[in-house]
Structures are given as structure tokens and as C-alpha cells.
Amino acid sequence: QVQLVESGGGLVQPGGSLRLSCAASGSIVKIYDMGWYRQAPGKQRELVALITSGGSTNYGDSVKGRFAISMDNAKNTVYLQMNSLKPEDTAVYYCSARTPAYYWGQGTQVTVSS
């Protein structure tokens, strides 16, 4: 079993920045990739960013150029640096890990509002 613990969410003004972290622990043999998804009220969960253990990245179209994902393989931790935040970025952000089974974190609220 793998546990994912997210941190770093909160309230920020439009144009501001936040950094999310997610640490994986438990019975980890190998992590193939880790990522961030988000779900706003009334909407489907969508990909924000994904990173493989080799460092390849993939971003959702709405966050390209504003968000950056990185991973510390030694710490089994993934980070999401979010810049130039917009009100439409408001959502619950979920961390994921593939080992190859998929695991999800509990989610952390990000609210962008003045």
C-alpha cells in the first residue's frame, strides 16, 4: 500500500503563486510517474501535469507556461510550482502516483480570488 500526502494549498490572489508538494510513502518498489490532477465544482477531474521517473513531463493545455512539475526521486516527492494563478485555477488538486497501480492523495484546496 502507498500513501500520498499533499501540502501547500490555500488562498491566493490572482497573479500570485503557490507550490504544492506530495510525498509518497509505504510499500514502494518503483514509482513510474507522479502527477497532479484537479477537479473544480461541477466539472470532471482533469490532468494538470505529469512527470515520469525519467523526467519527461506532460501538461494540461490550460496551465502550459504557468505551472512547472518536478520530482525528487530519492524522496518520492513531486512538486507543482503554480505561477500567474487565475480564478479558473480554483479547484481541489489531487496528487497521483503509478507503481504501476494507481494511488491518489486526499486532495488539497487551491482558491484563487481577490
Structure description:
- There is one protein chain.
- The chain is an all-beta fold and 114 residues long.
- Helix content is 0%, strand content 55%.
- It has no helices and eleven strands.
- The strands form two sheets. Strands 2, 4, 5, 6, 9, 10 and 11 form a seven-stranded mixed β-sheet that branches. Strands 1-3-8-7 form a four-stranded antiparallel β-sheet, with no helix packed on it.
- Strand 4 (33-39) and strand 5 (46-52) form a beta hairpin.
- The chain is globular.
Produce the secondary structure layout.
Blueprint: E1 2-7, E2 10-12, E3 18-26, E4 33-39, E5 46-52, E6 57-59, E7 67-72, E8 77-82, E9 91-98, E10 102-104, E11 108-112
Parallel strand pairs: 2-11
Antiparallel strand pairs: 1-3, 3-8, 4-5, 4-9, 5-6, 7-8, 9-10, 9-11
